[in-house]
Every structure is written in C-alpha cells, then in structure tokens.
Amino acid sequence: MTRASSRRPGPPTRTERGIPEATVARLPVYLRALTALSDSGIATASSEDLATAAGVNSAKLRKDLSYLGSYGTRGVGYDVEYLRYQIAREIGVTQDWAVVIVGIGNLGHALANYSGFGTRGFRIVALLDADPNLVGERIGDMEVRDFAQLEEIVEADRVSIGVITTPAGPAQDVCDRLVAAGVTSILNFAPVVLSVPDGVDIRKVDLSIELQILAYHEQRKSGEAALPQVPELPAMNGLPDLPSVGGGVGA
Amino acid sequence: MTRASSRRPGPPTRTERGIPEATVARLPVYLRALTALSDSGIATASSEDLATAAGVNSAKLRKDLSYLGSYGTRGVGYDVEYLRYQIAREIGVTQDWAVVIVGIGNLGHALANYSGFGTRGFRIVALLDADPNLVGERIGDMEVRDFAQLEEIVEADRVSIGVITTPAGPAQDVCDRLVAAGVTSILNFAPVVLSVPDGVDIRKVDLSIELQILAYHEQRKSGEAALPQVPELPAMNGLPDLPSVGGGVGA
DNA sequence: AGGAGCTTGTGAACGTGAGAACAAAATCGG
DNA sequence: CCGATTTTGTTCTCACGTTCACAAGCTCCT
Ligand SMILES: NC(=O)c1ccc[n+]([C@@H]2O[C@H](COP(=O)([O-])OP(=O)(O)OC[C@H]3O[C@@H](n4cnc5c(N)ncnc54)[C@H](O)[C@@H]3O)[C@@H](O)[C@H]2O)c1
Ligand SMILES: NC(=O)c1ccc[n+]([C@@H]2O[C@H](COP(=O)([O-])OP(=O)(O)OC[C@H]3O[C@@H](n4cnc5c(N)ncnc54)[C@H](O)[C@@H]3O)[C@@H](O)[C@H]2O)c1
Predict the structure, then answer these.
(1) Which of A229, B33, B89, B191 is least surrounded by CB atoms within 10 angstroms?
(2) Among A78, A124, A75, A81, which residue's Cα sits nearest to residue A104?
(3) Does the pLDDT value for residue A149 go beyond 90?
(4) pLDDT of the residue at B212
C-alpha cells in the first residue's frame, strides 16, 4: 500500500522482491500457527497440517510460502523452527519495532495492558494523551506522558509505528503530528478516514464496520425466504426516520 | 445436478440479490461518510464528494452503489438522507441487533464502555465472564453476568451476534457454546483460528497481525537500498534464536 | 540400487475486483 | 424548446487472487 515499487506497467513484475499484499496479510497467521506447533513440540509439518492450523487451504499456503523461497522438503514437509524464522525475518519481526499509543482512554488502556505485543516483535515505548488528568497515571510499568512530548520521544526511540486511539475528532490532527514527527506507519482505531502523504502506511481497525458486515450476512440468513419483502422504494419524502443509524463521527 | 436450476455456472450470476463481498465491506464506510455529511447539514453530494469523504475513488463508489439500485440523479448527485437510508437498509442496521460480549477483561471492558455501537444499530444485551470475581461488577448501566447464563440470554433476547474477548485458550470452547446456543455471527479478538459450522459467519480482529503487516512495509522502506542484505539462508542448525518471536497462543 | 509413496513448488485456468472511459439522463440558461 | 453542462450508471479491460492439477524431488523400504 502506498509504497508502489516504481510503477512499471509492463510485465507482471515477477518477484521483484515483492510479495502480493494478500500473502503479506496471511504471513502473520502462518507465523502464529507455526509458533503454536512449535510450542506443542512438533518439529515438522506438511502444508496440509499448516494450512489446517492457519485456517486456509493448502494450495494457497504453498503458493504463499513459495514467494519467500523454497523452504520445504518434498516428500517431508516444512521444518517448523526454520520456517518460523524465515517468515519472521521476511515480515521483519526478528527485530523489535518501537510503538507509541496516542489516546489512553478505554481502548488505549486495554492496549497498554496487553502483553501480547512484546512477544510478537513490538515494544510500546510511550503512552501519550492530551488530558492533563491522565498524564502521570501508571499503567503496568509505564506512565502516561503528555502528547506534547511526542516529537522528542519519536526521535529518541526511533519510533516508526504509531497507534491512534483518540476520538474521531482529533484523529487527523494527531495523525499529522505523528507524521511530522517522523512516524511512517499508523494503525488507526478512530472511525474516520485519515489522509497521509505518500510513503506513510496506514491501516485501520473499525469494530463497528466488522459488526455491520456481520449484520449484512445475518440479514440475508433470516430473510432467505422468510421476511416479508422490505419496501423497495419508500417515497423520498417521509423516510422512516432512522434514530441516527450509521453513527456520527462522534467519540 | 447438471440441469438443476440452482448453481448455474454460465454467466456471472447477474445481481441475483448478491452484492460482492468487497462492496459489502465498503458500505459501512459510505454510511459513516454520509452520516458525517448529513451532520454537516449537506443535503446532496456527488460521487466525487462522497468518494473523497470515504477515501476511495469515485468510479469504485459509483459501481458499489449501483449494486444497490439507482439511487442517484444524473447531473445532480445523491440525496444524502435518502442514500443513507438505503445503505442502512441494505446492511441491515435499520433494525437493532442484539450482541453479547464474552470475556470482560481489558478489551471486554473497553468494548462495554464504548458508546459507538448503540448509535450504529447494535445493542449490547449482556456482558459475560466465567470469573466469579468479575460477575456482578457494574459497567455503565450493565452488570457482568455468569457465562453459564449464555443460553437463556441468547434465547430471551434473540441474540444473533457474539463477540469473543477471552484469551486464546478458551476461545474455541466459548465459540462452540455460542454456536450451540444459537448465535450465528461471531466477532473474534482472540489470536486463534476458530472453526465454526456452515451457516455461521465469523470475522476476526487481530491487532498483532495489523502491526506485523505494517512492520513488513516498514522494513521495506528502510531496506530499500540501505540495510546490508540480511543473510539469505542461515544454516538450518544454529538459527539466531528468536526470543519467542511470533508470539504463542497465550493470552 | 530401484521403485513406491509422499509432498512440495508452480504453471495454467478460473474468478473476483479495480479503474478508465463513455453513453444516457438530468438540470439550467437563454 | 434546445443545447450546453454536469454527473450517474455501466461496459470493457486489465490486474490480482484463488484453486486445480501435476511434474519434480525427496525418503524409505525392499
Ligand atoms: N472503546 C471501544 O471499545 C471502541 C470501539 C470501537 C472504536 N473505538 C474508537 O476508538 C477510539 C478511542 O475510544 P475510547 O473508548 O478509548 O475513547 P475515550 O474517549 O475513552 O479515549 C480517548 C482518549 O483520547 C484522548 N485524547 C483526545 N484528544 C486527544 C488529542 N488531541 N491528543 C491526544 N489524546 C487525545 C482523551 O484524553 C482520551 O483519554 C475512538 O475513536 C472510538 O471511536 C473504541
Ligand atoms: N487487550 C488488548 O489490547 C488486546 C490486544 C490484542 C488482542 N487481544 C486479545 O483479546 C483477548 C482478550 O484480551 P484481554 O487483554 O482483555 O484479556 P484479559 O485476560 O484481560 O481478559 C480475558 C477475560 O476472559 C475471561 N475468560 C477466560 N476464560 C473464559 C471463559 N471460558 N468463558 C468466559 N470468560 C472467560 C477472563 O475471566 C477475563 O476476564 C485475548 O485473546 C487477547 O489475546 C487483546
């Protein structure tokens, strides 16, 4: 995303050290599955085993792994430890990445308390908030610091990843500050579309959207042949008034 | 089979009341953008306006909307309220969906405190946990209840959506219980692949995976031509020992 | 040593999604 | 009433992603 190689339009850009985005999104799942197998004392696994553990089909898994190189052994399978290292290296989690979290409210607290990041290659180096009442609060072995200190922290700790858990309103401002400070990857939880310059990657997590996608399919299930057909085209004046369905941008 | 009227393999099964999955995933984003425009007092918007607000390109937006019907006016654009209602109806959030949350730890608390669900068509009807110390705790206007009460709650409140925020270990068991109780859509936050029977939809949110995807691209940025090439094939014996990179299944 | 039996890696077929481009339909000014 | 202008809805093409199917390659047994 954002980081297009060099826009060569010609041939399919064969393995120019580039892995398809869909594959990149699955590598962490494979990594998790391999770690689970490893923890169970399993030393070798076939693509079938791995695929089952990762919840995908085995052809897809093999093709995904083939982008990294030939790390399996025909007739045998994959060495769990070896493959785990190769995937970790490819993703980049053999090193630790410094992360700041901005907005230590409900969600920020939960993330700050979460132990799972440290074991997966990420180190939270600061919890930032603009609310003076929060600054100074201790969470685990960290302390909430003033958002104004962002720039010095980013520089001192070489922070490249920022997590935004503020309300939607200030999210774009916070994002701009992060980018200006030198952060080049952002994970956004606020329900708003953030714009960033080229070279900065952004991903979003929106729980309401996930629920709405489930609701869509849920509606299909019940309505398969049961519900009385919903009115197709209610007159444009006099809509059944939605009590703010869809939700505003509000916190 | 060959001549059966269902499962026609020929043409792309033109609009058999089916909307492409990629489009379904964007409809909530459009809904949010429309709500924001509506709140700003804007009554009409062109596909270009809407696309900007939603962070997509306008051709894609128009094509997405065309799956729902012809709700725009050529030369003018879309009536914001009208389109908002149509999308809300298509997604199914003109009605309220009952939701239970299982596992009221760090993340469960954050979700329980979140006001954004109610305004988007979802009603949290129960917070469930297996820990007796948590049962009875008040969060907002709700009280944590015993997980054992799951079945009666699902039946009483016609719950169709369940959210899992337990540790990875018990997640599959919790999932099975939810399904057995009648829940047919599940949103899973535990870092583990859950298996469900046909007819049950499942979506996952995994923050570590999001961070790892960012890390992959981040690595590419710095390594574009700078880093000394990482050793391509370390000997299979004597791997640089990862201090549990990839993270176990542990909570 | 040689063949049987597995399992990987990949070429090719198929399906889905994205974006450019444009004809059709609506408004508006004269 | 007509033509200029705007913007939608749709068609066409290309890119991307998934799945099938199988030759290549490895191990093990006889
Ligand atoms: N809590 C949830 O379960 C949940 C679910 C889905 C989405 N979200 C989204 O996540 C975000 C955070 O949710 P929350 O419930 O934690 O909200 P919250 O109100 O509890 O916390 C927001 C925090 O951000 C801080 N903040 C506000 N402006 C700031 C600024 N300019 N700079 C730095 N910090 C600032 C506030 O002081 C507060 O501590 C919101 O955008 C919300 O929509 C939350
Ligand atoms: N907290 C985060 O920021 C975060 C981030 C990423 C992923 N996660 C994942 O989300 C999940 C929850 O995280 P958390 O930090 O809230 O964990 P937590 O340990 O704080 O909370 C888990 C809760 O689940 C309850 N529970 C355990 N077994 C149960 C069972 N069988 N039935 C019902 N309830 C049960 C526990 O009593 C506890 O209250 C974990 O799987 C974690 O890996 C959390």
Answers:
(1) A229
(2) A124
(3) yes
(4) 98
Torsion of CA B47, B51, B56, B58, to 10 degrees: 20
pLDDT of residue B13: 35
Distance of CA A121 to the CA centre of its chain: 14
Q: Which strand C nucleotides have any atom less than 7 A from protein CB atoms?
A: 5-11, 15-21, 24-27
> Within 38-97 of chain A, which residues have Cβ less than 7 Å from strand D?
56-57, 59-60, 62-63, 73-76
Fold of A97-207: Rossmann fold (3.40.50)
Instruction: Quote the tokens at residue B124.
Output: 């949290």
pLDDT band at residue A224, thresholds of 50, 70 and 90?
low
Residues 6+ apart with CB under 8 A from A3: A199, A201, B217, B220, B221
Residue B239 has pLDDT above 60, yes or no: no
B21-90 fold: Arc Repressor Mutant, subunit A (1.10.10)
Q: What is the mean pLDDT of residues B49-71?
A: 96
Domain ranges of chain B: 21-90, 97-207
User: Given the DSSP bridges, would you call strands A44-45 and A142-146 parallel, antiparallel or unpaired?
Assistant: unpaired
| Residue A94 tokens, joined | 């053999």
A185/B107 touch (CB, cutoff 8 Å), yes or no: no
Chain A: residue nearest B246 by CA? A120
pLDDT tens sequence across A120-135: 899 999 999 999 999 9
